[in-house]
Automatic annotation (TrEMBL), chains A, B, C, D:
It comes from the Bacteria. The lineage of its organism: Bacteria, Pseudomonadati, Pseudomonadota, Gammaproteobacteria, Oceanospirillales. Residues 13-316 form the Aminotransferase class V domain. It comes from Marinobacterium rhizophilum. Gene3D superfamilies: Aspartate Aminotransferase, domain 1, Type I PLP-dependent aspartate aminotransferase-like (Major domain). Belongs to the class-V pyridoxal-phosphate-dependent aminotransferase family. This is Aminotransferase class V-fold PLP-dependent enzyme. Its cofactor is pyridoxal 5'-phosphate. It holds the Pfam family Aminotran_5. The keyword Nucleus does not apply.
Length: 401, 401, 401, 401
């Protein structure tokens, strides 16, 4: 790659742009992870993650990417052949389902069209039919990174309860946590799964499980073989601020800074900021005459927006034109959406002017690629953001509040 | 200052945004500046700066900011009471004139209205009247950072020659070098002056003099007292890659990287890029119905644009609104332009999308501050930049070529 | 922790001191791991690791610490209930054995006294008795970080071959690779396991498997459930420079730099350097009248030295005195060696003067802690290192060559 | 330079080893030096430097190296032809004297042998003879970096007072401040001069003047031409936390961190630490049978030790052997001491184990270079440092207290 002036716009839906404060926090000598100083770090990040997850239960941190935390959630709570109920919200739900099968689980998959979130009624129906409670866990993706569609986790919990079913609720909030509200305890989530490179603004390499009392109980009986992912030893060492094997120390330095930054800004402000970016982005998309993939307004993601291409146009060609001309990376369409959508990440360490630059790059890219569209998308975003700044009607803020 | 998400937009006309590559290059242990490894560094940056200055004569590097290099140019070439001819192009010309007076020079100042560059005819007239050649130097600011007006240095040289006058030509190209073309040798510049925090993309702390053979000759007789700024010892040590006193080693690490980046991109590409940003910015300003301070098209700066406020509106209030709401710093109006103009820096390590973000911040700021203007500035810039990207008529590129 | 002047001496046997070049290489914006630029990085580090492992077979890289790579080696090649033969060389062999049991393997453990390496004759005996080839794998730790004892991997391979046994050879070279010679292909290692924070000079967070053709073949039949660790998808994506899930991008930046540094220095020079440190350290230990844990000279580790305390003295108290007074971390005794030994790490990015500082800290610590010893350990090391520098008899260099 | 493993030992008497905390503090985006956030930084470092200088008078900070602050002290307080009294303590006093002459001052130079500090009696004698008070300033180097000899500044002040002479006292404490005690106000120093790369642990590029009320008064009449160095404008802008021209912003980030580190450790602890290093170093030198250049015990520098070579041996060859074999830079002998002494820097961010490494490098270097010496220098240092750690008789600490 030849040198290009200015900062690259990394507007994929994760990894998000890592702020300098975090990069610099990681750029420090690795310490002895069995020494006294480490315990302070360990306790700080473990407690901080509980705040971010909004849980009073333990959170464990793996030196692994998010896929590892999916596996950890399954192998700690389930046994070979166990039935689990999963919901096809998009590519990541599909991958998780594939993993469950590989691990020897009997994973049922409720069909979906990749434009809607989980249907709580369908979950309730399936569970009600499972009279002898063979389904051990319901697995849902809170925030589908492949589609930009959010699922209503609290409603899924209500559906489980309405069915009077004891299944555990395992939730992937990989692209949501730290950008949109997530209430582990209030929503009755048994295991919440996330990783470092989205709302936590970090490079990839860390992933997380929150563990409810019921999940912990389940882990005592769960029969899937496990060692690296085992909660028991992890929790035992975490109690004193340590880890059973070498932690990714320098990433933990970054995590400490990330948590501090989120709390400095205030989680509610973080959520409102993301809601604002998301509303502005959709206004731009509509002004261009393009279609947002997510169909139900209450399910629109605040973290990314997947945009459908006009019939006959290639999303990947547009992305290539934009990368070439304007040095911006956008997310590709995955699996059945390949070349049909592009995804705009507007998450993490991000502000209004960078969003305007991002949308400007897309509007210019549409022109440069010769794709039919209306001008005025950036203008629509400007109008909305200026209105919010002027203290006018802030739909986003209201929606969050 | 509380934490704000996303990157601050530092759109003052210098210091420009320092790219990570340069910051990281500086983030290294200081070396022994008398050891063998240092000589390699010294020779590399000295030779590199000759390329940037387009000169085969020596360039010296001071651990000092640009003001120091002004002083160096004067004290090395002049004696107490010497007459010098200076031209009032704006605040920095005015400050340099003040410095000349403080140093005991007899500094004549050709009036200007801060909206035009140097008038070569006026220079020629003054020199022609100076029949006994008492004027020892003509001092001009190539690129007035306070007004966004460029002066035609080659024309000034022609004026001096046309007058048959032996005065030295000392030129401040502080905000120009590395962003707009500057040809030290071809234009017959005797001392060119610059510093690190503009086109060189560095933090402040280094400044430079190029030294023509005639300037060097003049320094043998020049009587102003000098030690720190003395060229003689500097050149003597530079010959082997060293410095007579402690150089700002870590800033030199950054300079080495900066020179490499400019040459990787190619100077002509760098100049075309700045011309493009400048044209896009003026189109936005005009679309808003505002006025560019610079009056003559051929003198418009490619590095910054100074914008006149509508009558009765405060530029500083607008800047405060923008800083508060959109986390962007713009340049203030200086001296007689105080509160009357704001200055948009579009120099250094910068790209199209960041420019769109910058202009978006101004357009939203005008709204948020309730200042009467037309919408469509950002749109005008988008249209222009998309046209350039599409390979359409690139006025900027043509103008440079 | 209050501020302490100077650099902390991190002389545990890993994480080793991370050099600034690597920290700075990691301190860069995370890139799109599905973009074109990433593929270059991916291919570079994958090919580089083959050079370090001295293999022409593929190497895979996990975003995980070394324990994960142990698990990967087992779950990719084995099925539930499979017999494996392991050798008790110390705490890490013991932990790996425990992991094998947790994963449902029938793991036999050849006893050891923690002061010797693997006994190839014993391995051969066990394999010869396994006439129907139920043992699927022999697992040995090349370099026991808990004891400072090296095992002769080539001899183990010869033993397997001599027994005419088809078992795979899985080797943990976690603390050896990159510091002492390791010849994956020449020694017939089927899976070699390592991680980032030892000879590779990185922070923890990456781990590795090399995969022989036979190991790959075994993975087609192996029945242990796996997803995150699965070689198949990994190799499929690696072929084009990508990863099946988010890689730890910033750690890969560091890895690229680490590989470059090892190759710049030259692997043979790296090995000779470690041999020199190790010899100097043992001379110091003997001069103090203390005992090196490793009993057989040809098995002495070049990476760390475990030192037995005099009867009745606490190793942990000595370590605490040294940390408190001289800001140096030493490795603790593990498991049955708890409080009985301390371990001196002399691996990774390290030089003669830092070794002298390290040994000086121990000699002063022995005094400060009131532990009976002879003076002169540092002097013995100085004498040896000066002799080597003077080109005198370099036992270490000879031993390596 | 080819890559060498481990950290370079930069044991010249400045630049000292810059700690990571400071490098990382500098590795941040440059801010608008006219914006509100800057004023906080400016006020913090200006107030912090008053604490370090132990003065209630203003301190000014130049973007310049130490030589610039020498010039600033002279041009702000003196007029062309003024008589000043200077004392030949070594190379830096000699250079400062040369500067005074270049600037047109009538600079008297009291002879010295480069092995003693300033003789207060000689100063008093000269001043007493100057009955009409033509001598306007006495200039002394508190801490001669070329010789490792300290002068008694308080005694010089007493000598001036005893002579009843109104001359200003200008003191270069470039290599002393921040490492050894310096009491600007208590000792009646009118202008104290220092720079960033010694006790302040920074890279070069910043220098300082403290300004007494009398010095400020003198500056109103002083006639030497000045602009860049002018205190008046500097103080005017500093009052609000700003600077009259671009400050070296990123170096100021580092300075803020440096001040914080010194105050965290506690100045008295910093001074005691340096005294300890210095005593240990001299014990090593004597054990080798070599001679410390400084002749008077009370004048021994705590920051560096200059060591005389045995007759007929080249110091520069020894330094080259040590650099080549042990990757350590030592200071060269300057001017009349060229090749006769080497200088060991033991200042700044430094600890006991790095000192042992440093002394080890010298002892091994003496061997490798075949220079006749006794062994046991490192041992002597170890014995002393262990004794101090054990709470034994700490001569150094007593001397400081």
């Amino acid at each position: 790659m030849t040198y290009r002036s200015g900062r690259h716009f990394l507007q994929i839906p994760g990894p998000s742009n890592v702020p300098d404060r975090i990069l610099r926090a990681m750029d420090k000598p690795t310490m002895d992870h069995r020494g006294p100083e480490f315990a302070e770090l360990g306790k700080t990040v473990l407690a901080g993650m509980q705040q971010i997850f909004k849980t009073e239960n333990p959170v464990v941190i793996y030196p692994a990417s998010g896929t590892g935390a999916w596996e950890a959630a399954l192998v700690n709570t389930l046994s070979a052949g166990d039935r689990v109920l999963m919901c096809e919200t998009g590519q990541f739900a599909t991958l998780w389902h594939g993993m469950a099968q590989k691990l020897g689980l009997d994973a049922e998959f409720i069909d979906g069209d990749w434009r809607h979130g989980v249907d709580p009624a369908a979950v309730q129906r399936h569970l009600s039919e499972d009279r002898d409670h063979q389904i051990k866990a319901v697995c849902v993706v809170h925030h589908e990174t492949s589609t930009g569609v959010t699922s209503d986790v609290a409603a899924v919990r209500r559906a489980i309860d309405a069915a009077g079913h004891p299944a555990l609720l395992l939730v992937d909030t990989i692209s949501g946590l730290g950008s949109v509200d997530f209430r582990t305890d209030e929503w009755g989530v048994d295991v919440a799964i996330t990783c470092s490179q989205k709302g936590l603004m970090m490079p990839p390499g860390l992933s997380f499980n929150s563990i409810s009392a019921r999940a912990l109980q389940a882990s005592k009986q769960a029969g899937l073989p496990r060692s690296y992912w085992g909660w028991d030893e992890m929790l035992q060492h975490n109690a004193r601020g340590y880890f059973p094997y070498s932690p990714a120390t320098n990433l933990l330095y970054g995590l400490k800074e990330a948590i501090a930054m989120l709390l400095e800004e205030g989680l509610d402000n973080v959520f409102a900021r993301h809601a604002r970016f998301s509303e502005a982005t959709r206004r731009a998309v509509r002004a261009w005459g393009l279609e947002v993939l997510s169909l139900v307004p209450s399910e629109h993601s605040n973290v990314l927006t997947a945009v459908l291409m006009p019939e006959g146009e290639s999303a990947d060609r547009l992305r290539a034109v934009i990368l070439e001309n304007f040095d911006m990376s956008l997310g590709t369409g995955l699996n059945k959406l390949q070349d049909r959508v592009f995804r705009i990440g507007h998450l993490g360490d991000f502000n209004d002017l960078s969003l305007i630059g991002t949308l400007g790059g897309i509007e210019m890219g549409l022109s440069a690629a010769g794709i039919s569209h209306n001008k005025g998308g950036v203008q629509a975003a400007l109008d909305y953001l200026a209105e919010v700044a002027a203290g006018g009607q802030d739909c986003a803020r209201q929606r969050v509040a």
